[in-house]
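We recall that each integer encodes one residue's backbone shape. We quote one record:
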Amino acid sequence: MERYYQLPFSKYDPDLQPPRELLRTLNRAYLRSKHWVPIAGNRDKAIILIDDPNDANRIMEIQQVMNARSYEFRVGLREDILRFLGEAVELPTEAGREMKLEDLVGKLGEDDPFQEADIGDVKSRIGENEAAVVQLVNRVIVDATRLNASDIHIEPGKGRESTIIRMRVDGVCREVTRIPASHVRAVVARIKILARL
């Protein structure tokens, strides 16, 4: 997430309390609905945790609401933002995470929408009709972040064999899901788009 947004990533820290000076004039229900929270700083410089720093409208709204002299933005997960706001959020279990990945893989189907396309064409054709691919790649990245994975491995199968997705956590590389061979090129293309390759 840091590489994608070009901003520091911040996790929930129970020892870090959002400053009362900044929260005093803010409605917590509003912050929950907008998915941002001031986690440090003061009226001179406010440090804001937000789930999507690329949302220009929300950034402008934050600046109007906070009225601080300067801002430092950090990217974080919605669950962590809710925790900073005092919400009890139950993260999915490991099995739950894998089930969610499998649900997304199930959306891909078996037909290859890019059967006749080369990798350059694939990149240009991922759009709304490939929402499942986008959701799958995003879920893999989010789960890797939650698990503190050091890296993600994409291991293509031979021929029509499924591609295996693995994550390395605490030095152990483990399988998290499998992607049908028909959609591997679309997944790789989506990753290249995120990496700006």
Q: What stands out?
A: Strands lie at 36-41, 45-50, 70-75, 151-155, 163-169, 172-179. The radius of gyration is 19 Å. The chain has nine helices and six strands.
